[in-house]
């Protein structure tokens, strides 16, 4: 279903967007479509940002750090006064859940596109919100909030709740004073241990017990409420793919919920919204266990980052509805009108280098070419972003670059669309998690929907080091690269200055080397495609309109749509595809024979070097040449992104040579010191 | 009759075996290809025409009369690279260690003469233990004959050296006089005196690799233009280089089909120059965004990184690029970068390759190191090279163009044909801060006044318009339009004719 926006009179004359990046762009897009004048605010660092260019007007509100610009209420209020903005959309983050901001706006008669301050207040406190939720009939994690006298009482309570339970120090944190118990004995021991630890660590031995949810999923309900007492839920979003509580991939609907659970969760979410007098879009987060028991986690009183997946399956423009609700309009639909259509997935593209433990990466986007956005009945590709090629990923703000969304009538096809869209996303200049996103998409457990919040930590316990493609995919790449190479060679042979009648004839036989395997192939180019014959007689047809030099090859290989990022390298290509980063060589048979004679060269031995793990400045060198160091001893401190990182010795060694001094600016992998 | 024909085949087969199976195996064991294998990779498949296969040495001393292999340690002839003619000689280490005899040298000289006459590049593949000691002075004479040919061929046909094994003593001077030298890591080295002599004479202990390996010459001495992992990579990259070069000095640079819109706009270039004037940016981005298909063959990439030199194509045709690199030493000119760029500019001029100069230069590097090293004369080389060049010259000033370095970098005054500036350009005698400190020395104690003076100077000169008013800049262009504007500029210069006054030759400050 879609909501019509053309006939309605515009709810506001002007709207100031108190945010930056993709969400500012997102809000501006809907507001403009509604005919509302849009006003951007920006820091000094964001003068050339996309959201500034998109808005009708823009106001600079302060220096780069968000504390002095985007979340400085006074400065934002000044911009509002200056521009006479009628309403303010806060986006997410920054001031979006700050009741002081909502009140400041109310005092000046400016409309806040969001819930009433009272609702923000009520849901802002974890304990209080849980109580309100419980009172509203929302299911909360079963537990005992009061103090527990002794071990026997702990056992009684644990039995009431049902094992397993978590025994937690009231003042706890960082895993201290925390025990999981699966039976009475463990409950007894756990209680005593937690109490001791709590007393010694926090000087507060109060203990409480709650249900321990094993392998939980994170599933949230989108609600939309108006001030006329209407509240609907727009289905759920599954956000279980997280890394250290940072959501990475979201989808709607959840592959796990059945209609009954969905309806129950939706009803509870609406009940909670009503209980706090909620207006606007909001999200009620739940954890869901393997038996589809769900428990309230918290309510986010703002537009969520991952709202596009809901929009894609409901056809509702959430930003448009937020603006209308804020203007006092009634929701144009009732619960029965909300139909979930198809499947949507969102991948969050972060400026974090997955090969380096997801360290944030900053710098200039020397190349930024997202896949083309389009919408058809079979597939939608949507990319919410706030950057453009040449833009700067700065250390001052969130490292999210874009939210790439795909939609298809069912989950498999939506995943397939996402895999292709990720393949076609070109991004250079900074480290980013594109390969990791591809790896998630390709994971069998993700495919089957068998996911929980510990998925990433469990499946990549040692971190991410790339993707090994299946044999069939490697063959497709071999076929594709041979075809590209032949096209390239034919162009080379058409250079000016050839000796007439003695031109070079490009051969049809190639040997493609991919990931340590050799694929001798023969090419037969015909109308509309090239047939690549492998040694075992198998034939793959490669079709596409690739021209030499193009960095993206959109091909059909053996019937499968195959998108490769190809960068020329000596005798072949660097190919990036489905999270794999491959050096592919394409030789003529004779070249391959001779190349086989070349010695395998070991990469330089870096085991005796301390390399700089990130670009940064040396703050301090803690050792001197000739000094013996013990394992774990600090060697040097490098400041990067305002964080001081202490680099330590991996083993006992003697420092033979220092290559850097305090104050030096180092790039990644630059040598800091050598050991004997 | 059949027998006579068969004898030819037998003689050929024997000659092709060079030093025999055992030595070939030894060559492979060192990670090196044989002379003929290298030629196979360099040239189009099946295109090699060999000459002088049956040449043998005439030495009789020291038992040499008993061993007279056909070919005498060097394989010569011609073939094609993507259909274009190239002459080649390839020293055969399996025959007398590739040592150079009188006849070996004659073979090389013969194809160099042919190359000059017929207007095709010469590729020399060096893998030789040195002089044929048994021949004595005859061998030395051979070297000198080759040197003389190198000198005469210089600027007539491109000469490329692929050093793929030892190249020591006097032998180094033949590659040294060619236009480009490619080396292979771990298996090639070049030095005038080897580690043993170095140790005897100076007591310095150094390995052959450290003294004259590929990385040493690519990074420290600038003798090599690039260093590669192995023979195969070096040879394939030599083919790539040849595709950029004209066949001789009477021809225009080659053109090949291209698949990139010459009018392609690059909006991201509008933000290439950082807001902070002291913040660097990577000039590679501009070069690759101007180039057809982003293809930039950088020469001497590892040496004097404060200036970039290399080849791109615009509308399919080769253009030489010289660009200051703000990422290294703020892009200043110094001894090394001036030498590097000067030689490159002269190569381009000698072979009718148009030159694109991208300028962001704060000036010359100060200091005793530079002055004692003769930066005056080295800097003058670049000035001289630009000043004498008659090929089409297009210049784009992106940011700083200060002082004498402004003049040097293909300015209008050095017969720049089309001189563009970005709106971010600052063309002045020096930076505003330095200028005010000299102009208002008496006010140095008053920071506020100085700040105002600095601002005044900036407002007056930190832009391209003062220069544009005088016509020193032909047009101020949008950064995003740089590819289109430079492509059109070179298109308009296709029929450029300009000649320097007659002279025997110039006297560049070497």
TrEMBL record, chain A:
<dbReference type="InterPro" id="IPR011761">
    <property type="entry name" value="ATP-grasp"/>
</dbReference>
<dbReference type="InterPro" id="IPR005481">
    <property type="entry name" value="BC-like_N"/>
</dbReference>
<feature type="domain" description="Lipoyl-binding">
    <location>
        <begin position="601"/>
        <end position="676"/>
    </location>
</feature>
<feature type="domain" description="Biotin carboxylation">
    <location>
        <begin position="11"/>
        <end position="461"/>
    </location>
</feature>
<dbReference type="InterPro" id="IPR011054">
    <property type="entry name" value="Rudment_hybrid_motif"/>
</dbReference>
<keyword id="KW-0067">ATP-binding</keyword>
<dbReference type="Pfam" id="PF00289">
    <property type="entry name" value="Biotin_carb_N"/>
</dbReference>
<keyword id="KW-0547">Nucleotide-binding</keyword>
<dbReference type="Pfam" id="PF18140">
    <property type="entry name" value="PCC_BT"/>
</dbReference>
<dbReference type="InterPro" id="IPR050856">
    <property type="entry name" value="Biotin_carboxylase_complex"/>
</dbReference>
<dbReference type="InterPro" id="IPR005479">
    <property type="entry name" value="CPAse_ATP-bd"/>
</dbReference>
<protein>
    <recommendedName>
        <fullName>propionyl-CoA carboxylase</fullName>
        <ecNumber>6.4.1.3</ecNumber>
    </recommendedName>
</protein>
<dbReference type="GO" id="GO:0004658">
    <property type="term" value="F:propionyl-CoA carboxylase activity"/>
</dbReference>
<dbReference type="InterPro" id="IPR000089">
    <property type="entry name" value="Biotin_lipoyl"/>
</dbReference>
<dbReference type="InterPro" id="IPR016185">
    <property type="entry name" value="PreATP-grasp_dom_sf"/>
</dbReference>
<keyword id="KW-0479">Metal-binding</keyword>
<keyword id="KW-0442">Lipid degradation</keyword>
<dbReference type="GO" id="GO:0016042">
    <property type="term" value="P:lipid catabolic process"/>
</dbReference>
<dbReference type="Pfam" id="PF02785">
    <property type="entry name" value="Biotin_carb_C"/>
</dbReference>
<comment type="pathway">
    <text>Metabolic intermediate metabolism; propanoyl-CoA degradation; succinyl-CoA from propanoyl-CoA: step 1/3.</text>
</comment>
<dbReference type="InterPro" id="IPR011764">
    <property type="entry name" value="Biotin_carboxylation_dom"/>
</dbReference>
<dbReference type="InterPro" id="IPR005482">
    <property type="entry name" value="Biotin_COase_C"/>
</dbReference>
From TrEMBL, chain B:
<dbReference type="InterPro" id="IPR034733">
    <property type="entry name" value="AcCoA_carboxyl_beta"/>
</dbReference>
<dbReference type="GO" id="GO:0016740">
    <property type="term" value="F:transferase activity"/>
</dbReference>
<feature type="domain" description="CoA carboxyltransferase C-terminal">
    <location>
        <begin position="264"/>
        <end position="504"/>
    </location>
</feature>
<dbReference type="InterPro" id="IPR011763">
    <property type="entry name" value="COA_CT_C"/>
</dbReference>
<dbReference type="GO" id="GO:0004658">
    <property type="term" value="F:propionyl-CoA carboxylase activity"/>
</dbReference>
<protein>
    <recommendedName>
        <fullName>Propionyl-CoA carboxylase beta chain</fullName>
    </recommendedName>
</protein>
<dbReference type="InterPro" id="IPR029045">
    <property type="entry name" value="ClpP/crotonase-like_dom_sf"/>
</dbReference>
<dbReference type="GO" id="GO:0003989">
    <property type="term" value="F:acetyl-CoA carboxylase activity"/>
</dbReference>
<keyword id="KW-0436">Ligase</keyword>
<comment type="similarity">
    <text>Belongs to the AccD/PCCB family.</text>
</comment>
<dbReference type="GO" id="GO:0015977">
    <property type="term" value="P:carbon fixation"/>
</dbReference>
<dbReference type="Pfam" id="PF01039">
    <property type="entry name" value="Carboxyl_trans"/>
</dbReference>
<keyword id="KW-0808">Transferase</keyword>
<dbReference type="GO" id="GO:0009317">
    <property type="term" value="C:acetyl-CoA carboxylase complex"/>
</dbReference>
<dbReference type="InterPro" id="IPR051047">
    <property type="entry name" value="AccD/PCCB"/>
</dbReference>
<feature type="domain" description="CoA carboxyltransferase N-terminal">
    <location>
        <begin position="1"/>
        <end position="257"/>
    </location>
</feature>
<dbReference type="InterPro" id="IPR011762">
    <property type="entry name" value="COA_CT_N"/>
</dbReference>
């Amino acid at each position: 279903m879609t909501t019509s926006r053309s006939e309605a009179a515009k709810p506001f004359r002007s709207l100031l967007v108190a945010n930056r990046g993709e969400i500012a762009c997102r809000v501006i897009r809907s507001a403009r479509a509604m005919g509302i004048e849009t006003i951007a605010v920006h820091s000094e660092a964001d003068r050339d940002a996309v959201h500034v260019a998109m808005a009708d007007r823009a106001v600079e509100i302060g220096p780069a750090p968000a504390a002095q610009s985007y979340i400085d209420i006074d400065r934002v209020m000044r911009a509002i006064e200056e521009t006479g903005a009628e309403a303010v959309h806060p986006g997410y983050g920054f001031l979006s859940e700050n009741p002081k901001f909502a009140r400041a706006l109310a005092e000046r008669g400016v409309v806040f596109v969001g819930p009433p301050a009272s609702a923000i207040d009520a849901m802002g406190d974890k304990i209080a919100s849980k109580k309100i939720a419980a009172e509203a009939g929302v299911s909360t994690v079963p537990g005992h909030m009061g103090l527990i006298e002794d071990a026997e009482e702990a056992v009684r309570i644990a039995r009431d709740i049902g094992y397993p339970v978590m025994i937690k120090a009231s003042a706890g944190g960082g895993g201290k004073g925390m025990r999981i118990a699966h039976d009475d004995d463990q409950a007894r021991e756990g209680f005593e241990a937690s109490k001791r630890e709590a007393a010694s660590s926090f000087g507060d031995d109060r203990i409480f017990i709650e249900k321990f949810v094993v392998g939980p999923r994170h599933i949230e309900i989108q609600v939309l409420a108006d001030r006329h007492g209407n509240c609907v839920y727009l289905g759920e979003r599954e956000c279980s793919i997280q890394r250290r509580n940072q959501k990475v991939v979201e989808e709607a609907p959840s592959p796990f919920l059945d209609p009954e659970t969905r309806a129950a969760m939706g009803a509870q979410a609406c009940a909670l919204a009503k209980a706090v007098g909620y207006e606007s879009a909001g999200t009620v987060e739940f954890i869901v266990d393997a038996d589809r028991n769900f428990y309230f986690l918290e309510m986010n009183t703002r537009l969520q980052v991952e709202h596009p997946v809901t929009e894609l399956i409901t056809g509702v423009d959430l930003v448009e509805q937020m603006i209308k609700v804020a203007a006092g309009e009634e929701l144009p639909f009732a619960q029965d009108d909300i139909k979930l259509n198809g499947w949507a997935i969102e991948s969050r593209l972060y400026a974090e280098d997955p090969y380096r433990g997801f360290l944030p990466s900053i710098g200039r986007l020397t190349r930024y070419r997202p896949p083309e956005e389009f919408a058809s009945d079979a597939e939608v590709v949507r990319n919410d972003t706030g950057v453009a090629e040449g833009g700067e990923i700065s250390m001052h703000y969130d490292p999210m670059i874009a939210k790439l969304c795909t939609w298809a009538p069912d989950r498999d096809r939506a995943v397939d669309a996402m895999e292709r869209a990720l393949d076609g996303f070109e991004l250079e200049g900074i480290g980013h998690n594109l390969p990791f996103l591809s790896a998630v998409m390709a994971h069998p457990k993700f495919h089957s929907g068998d996911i929980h919040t510990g998925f990433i930590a469990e499946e990549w316990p040692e971190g991410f080091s790339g993707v090994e493609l299946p044999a069939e995919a490697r063959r497709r790449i071999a076929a594709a690269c041979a075809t590209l190479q032949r096209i390239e060679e034919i162009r080379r042979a058409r250079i000016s200055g050839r000796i007439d009648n003695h031109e070079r004839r490009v051969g049809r036989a190639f040997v493609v080397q991919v990931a340590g395997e050799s694929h001798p192939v023969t090419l037969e180019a015909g109308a509309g495609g090239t047939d690549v014959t492998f040694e075992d007689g198998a034939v793959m047809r490669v079709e596409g309109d690739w021209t030499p030099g193009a960095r993206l090859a959109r091909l059909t290989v053996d019937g499968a749509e195959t998108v490769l990022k190809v960068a020329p390298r000596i005798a072949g290509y660097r190919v990036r595809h489905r999270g794999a980063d491959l050096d592919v060589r394409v030789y003529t048979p004779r070249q391959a024979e001779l190349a086989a004679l070349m010695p395998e060269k070991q990469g330089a031995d870096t085991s005796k070097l301390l390399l700089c793990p990130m670009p940064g400045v040396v703050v301090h060198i803690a050792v001197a040449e000739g000094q013996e160091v013990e394992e774990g001893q600090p060697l040097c401190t490098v400041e990067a992104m305002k964080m001081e990182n202490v680099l330590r010795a991996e083993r006992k060694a003697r420092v033979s040579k220092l290559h850097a001094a305090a104050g030096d600016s180092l790039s990644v992998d630059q040598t800091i010191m050598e050991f004997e | 009759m059949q027998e006579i024909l068969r004898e030819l085949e037998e003689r050929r087969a024997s000659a092709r075996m060079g030093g025999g199976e055992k030595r070939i195996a030894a060559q492979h064991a060192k990670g090196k290809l044989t002379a003929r294998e290298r030629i196979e990779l360099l040239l189009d498949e099946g295109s090699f025409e060999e000459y002088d296969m049956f040449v043998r040495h005439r030495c009789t001393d020291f038992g040499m009369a008993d061993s007279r292999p056909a070919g005498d340690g060097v394989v010569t002839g011609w073939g094609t690279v993507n259909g274009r003619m190239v002459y080649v000689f390839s020293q055969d280490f399996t025959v007398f260690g590739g040592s150079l005899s009188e006849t070996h040298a004659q073979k090389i000289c013969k194809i160099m003469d042919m190359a000059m006459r017929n207007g095709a590049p010469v590729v020399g593949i060096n893998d030789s233990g040195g002089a044929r000691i048994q021949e004595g002075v005859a061998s030395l004479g051979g070297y000198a004959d080759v040197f003389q040919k190198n000198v005469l061929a210089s600027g007539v046909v491109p000469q490329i050296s692929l050093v793929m094994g030892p190249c020591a003593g006097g032998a180094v001077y033949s590659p040294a006089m060619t236009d480009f030298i490619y080396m292979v890591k771990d298996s090639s080295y070049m030095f005038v005196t080897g580690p043993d002599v170095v140790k005897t004479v100076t007591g310095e202990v150094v390995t052959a690799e450290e003294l004259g390996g590929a990385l040493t010459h690519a990074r420290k001495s600038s003798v090599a233009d690039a260093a590669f992992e192995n023979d195969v990579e070096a040879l394939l990259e030599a083919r790539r280089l040849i595709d950029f070069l004209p066949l001789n000095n009477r021809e225009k640079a080659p053109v090949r089909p291209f698949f990139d819109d010459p009018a392609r706009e690059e909006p991201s270039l509008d933000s290439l120059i950082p807001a902070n004037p002291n913040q660097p940016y990577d000039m590679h981005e501009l070069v690759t965004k101007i180039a057809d298909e982003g293809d930039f063959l950088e020469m001497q990439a590892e040496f004097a990184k404060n200036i970039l030199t290399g080849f791109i194509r615009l509308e399919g045709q080769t253009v030489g690029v010289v660009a200051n690199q703000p990422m290294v030493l703020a892009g200043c000119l110094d001894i090394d970068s001036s030498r590097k760029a000067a030689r490159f500019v002269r190569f381009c001029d000698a072979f009718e390759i148009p030159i694109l100069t991208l300028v962001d230069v704060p000036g010359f590097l100060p200091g005793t190191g530079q002055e004692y090293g003769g930066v005056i004369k080295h800097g003058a080389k670049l000035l001289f090279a630009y000043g004498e060049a008659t090929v089409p010259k297009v210049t784009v000033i992106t940011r700083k163009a200060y002082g004498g370095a402004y003049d040097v970098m293909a300015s209008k005054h050095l017969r720049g044909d089309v001189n563009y500036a970005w709106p971010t350009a600052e063309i002045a005698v020096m930076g505003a801060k330095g200028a005010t400190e000299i102009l208002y020395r008496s006010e140095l104690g008053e920071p506020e006044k100085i700040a105002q003076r600095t601002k005044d100077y900036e407002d007056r000169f930190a832009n391209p318009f003062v220069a544009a008013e005088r016509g020193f800049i032909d047009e101020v262009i949008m950064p995003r339009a740089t590819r289109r504007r430079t492509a059109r500029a070179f298109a308009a210069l296709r029929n450029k004719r300009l000649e320097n006054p007659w002279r025997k030759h110039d006297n560049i400050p070497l």
